[in-house]
Amino acid sequence: MEISPVLGNHSLIERQRNNLRLAIKLGFVALFFVGFGFAMVPIYDAFCKITGLNGKTNETAAVIDKNTQIDYSRTVKVEFLSHSMPGIGLSFKPEQFSLRVHPGEISRMNYTITNHSDKVFVGQAIPSVTPAVAAQYFEKLECFCFSQQTFAPHESRTMPVVYVVNPKLDADMGTVTLSYTFFEAVKAKS
């Protein structure tokens, strides 16, 4: 077995140039993906606005017409899910995990949120509805998700969401799921 001779000075310089070119190319790839990550939010919002496939609910209270008719001929099962980010010290759950409602009927579900930490917690619940096509028919009239919430250490609070499932919801859609994720609010830079 023969051992190759030591690389010449010319080969070493060529290898260093190739390594430098590769490092520069990989740096550009990393920069591209960082920019792409930041661009995904507006791209997703534009895509959702164009296609109507987003699962987002209204961000402010809906105004309900007083003449809304309740469809007593059918019911829709509304499921309630709740999540809080790991490590923030919150427990967050609905009073019930599902409820049957008539479309057009104003309904209410209470969520209990407890801050188990020794610190003040400021956060906000972000809602989503599935299937996504049902989001436009799930109208919140009152919701703790409309604004940030502040919890004292070890505080427990029951907060409502008042909603109506619009009677225009497709009759074949028997179940709608309302899911909330409670996030810690972004801290202001000092």
* CATH fold descriptor of the largest domain: Ctag/Cox11 (Pfam 04442)
Query: Secondary-structure element sequence?
Result: HEEEEEEEEE
Structural class: alpha+beta
Number of domains: 2
Largest sheet: 5 strands, mixed
The general outline is elongated
Q: Which regions are unreliable across 5 or more consecutive residues at pLDDT < 50?
A: none
The helix fraction, in percent, is 10-25%
CATH class descriptor name of the largest domain: Mainly Beta
What structural keywords apply?
Ctag/Cox11 (Pfam 04442), alpha+beta, 35% strand
Concise description?
With 190 residues, this protein is of the alpha+beta class.
Describe this structure in words.
By secondary structure, the protein is α+β, with helices and mostly antiparallel strands. The chain folds into 2 domains: 1-51; 76-184, Ctag/Cox11 (Pfam 04442), CATH 2.60.370.10. 23% of the residues lie in helices and 35% in strands. It contains 1 helix and 9 strands, in the order H-E-E-E-E-E-E-E-E-E. The strands form 2 sheets. The chain has a 5-stranded mixed beta sheet, with no helix packed on it. Strands 2-4-8-6 form a 4-stranded antiparallel beta sheet, with no helix packed on it. The radius of gyration is 26 Å and the shape is elongated. The N and C termini lie far apart (67 Å).
